[in-house]
Fold:
Amino acid sequence: MTGTLALLLALVRFGSDSAPMIVTVSSARGEARLPVRTDATGAPVIAAPALLWALDGSARVADGWAEVNVARQAFRFLVGTPLYVFGNQLQALAGSASVSRDTLYLPFQFVAQVLPSFLGERYRYDTRRARLIDVTVVASRSPTARAPIPVLETRLPNGLRSGHIVTIDPGHGGVDPGNPGTFFPRGTREKDVTLQVGLLLREELKRRGVGVTMTRTSDTLIALGDRGRYCTEACDLFVSLHVNSLARRPGYTDIRGFETYFLAEARTEDAARVAQMENEAVRFEGGTPDAASGVGLDFILKDLQLNEHLRESARAADLVQRNLKAVHVGDNRGVKQAGFMVLTTARRPAILVELGYSTNPEDGRFLTTYASQKAMAFSLADAVVEYLLEYERKTHSADSGASR
Structure:
């Protein structure tokens, strides 16, 4: 059979009409129900992070190739082309591997045909039930098996286990308007933008099976020292939303873009400026910024230098920046650190996102358009889910190492 004929037959067999909406993966990690989507060409694809989590695999994208490792076997996909390499042999596919918003997507055919064909001793695909089965797990359940039976967990379609909780903190509120919004529509202020994006983010995370706690859902003032306490021990991540601004000076309206902070001592004057600006909101509570952010904040910062949450917070901030870059019209101003009071009481991984500059006309329009707010919420949700998946992998590895 020629390569062209094989590709044509594959296209017929694995077109979008024949693909299921959900594929279930049964493995030692449990039952994962993964959504099957269509890419820009209409071909069915599956998000690689969730799939490879379920298969205990890995992936790396570099130089136009996606190297996917499953059961210690390497499959190399040429991104954007219906071809892959296995065992030094070039093979045809019905669809292509692709990258969208920094997420790798693999053709549905990889699950339904490629793995069962080349790793048949390990995987079997049940077409009728749309289920990929790790037969080694099934064998371990037999009465004669000596190995302990693995406990299967129920997984969400995106690969997450259920029960995650994220706290969303729309900055400012009530008598504290935040910055006035130089280039916002008349009557719109920072507190309005952060609340709208926060509510959209809550909606998106809930749609993905992540529990959400809000510090506020209306135009209400919540004390800076109380916001972080909404993120209890059951909370996995605290996300505070804000809008940046600059004082009048030559060229101040040209500065634009988004940045994400975690709690540590500021390394730049600009980071210190942003922290001071946000911390000054305490004046609406009848206190003073200096009194509230003095010895107590210094002590917490020193204590956190040895806290593992710093590393997790920094990683979450990095994922937020990477995902927002795909939809934001402004500059990616990077991950930064500073002493934000609102982050001090979370005592869990916590980040503060400056969504853009109200003192820039392009950012101002972007921040106040519903479609843009929806896009930001979607990208933030992508980052949160990716962070939670990574966190699960780390804790799973740690638990496995401790049990050996």
